[in-house]
């Protein structure tokens, strides 16, 4: 991982209890904390403004879930499947997604701080209008993901597949995509100002604006 900035990791107690996602319903306001949830499926749940903190999700499949305005703090997802989950307007702080599938996940209009995506499938993921600060995507597939009009600060893409990612109106100044691969990006030259690219990528962008690059 790039060492140019230091991210805060999830602060999860060493000893936490085995829990159930349905523990959420034992509270006046929906929340879950200090638990490990593993080897199960969470299906057809719709909860607004659920607060989840100090929780480990391991080998959990989320099916047809809608968690608008959820808040995740000090949480890890390991080998989980959140494909097509609706997490619209989430607040995500000190969270790690490891080796997880988030195909088509809806994280639009969300706020991210100190978040790691490692070895994840984020193809077709929706991040539009989100605010991302101290976020790393490492060895992830983000094909056709949408970052339309996102605000980036201290963002890093390391060895990712960025083919057809939409970065329209999301300035990439200071962001390093040189180790990632793509055949095409949806981006304007204005948004590319200050973006760090490899020599091969620079040639591709030159061709995009009609320059003839002599071999």
Automatic annotation (TrEMBL):
It comes from the Bacteria. InterPro entries: 5peptide_repeat, PA_immunity-related. Gene3D superfamilies: E3 ubiquitin-protein ligase SopA. SUPFAM superfamilies: Pentapeptide repeat-like. It holds the Pfam family Pentapeptide_4. This is Pentapeptide repeat-containing protein. It comes from Bacillus carboniphilus.
């Amino acid at each position: 991982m790039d060492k140019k900035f230091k991210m805060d990791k999830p602060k999860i107690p060493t000893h936490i209890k085995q829990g159930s996602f349905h523990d959420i319903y034992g509270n006046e306001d929906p929340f879950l904390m200090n638990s490990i949830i593993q080897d199960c499926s969470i299906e057809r749940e719709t909860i607004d403004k659920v607060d989840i903190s100090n929780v480990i999700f391991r080998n959990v499949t989320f099916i047809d879930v809608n968690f608008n305005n959820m808040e995740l703090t000090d949480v890890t997802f390991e080998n989980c499947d959140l494909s097509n989950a609706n997490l619209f307007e989430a607040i995500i702080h000190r969270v790690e997604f490891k080796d997880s599938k988030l195909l088509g996940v809806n994280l639009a209009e969300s706020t991210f701080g100190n978040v790691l995506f490692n070895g994840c499938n984020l193809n077709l993921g929706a991040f539009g209008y989100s605010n991302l600060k101290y976020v790393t995507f490492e060895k992830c597939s983000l094909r056709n993901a949408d970052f339309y009009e996102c605000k980036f600060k201290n963002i890093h893409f390391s060895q990712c597949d960025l083919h057809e990612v939409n970065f329209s109106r999301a300035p990439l100044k200071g962001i390093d995509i040189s180790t990632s691969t793509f055949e095409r990006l949806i981006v304007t030259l204005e948004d590319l100002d200050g973006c760090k690219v490899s020599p091969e990528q620079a040639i591709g962008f030159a061709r995009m604006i009609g320059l003839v690059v002599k071999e």
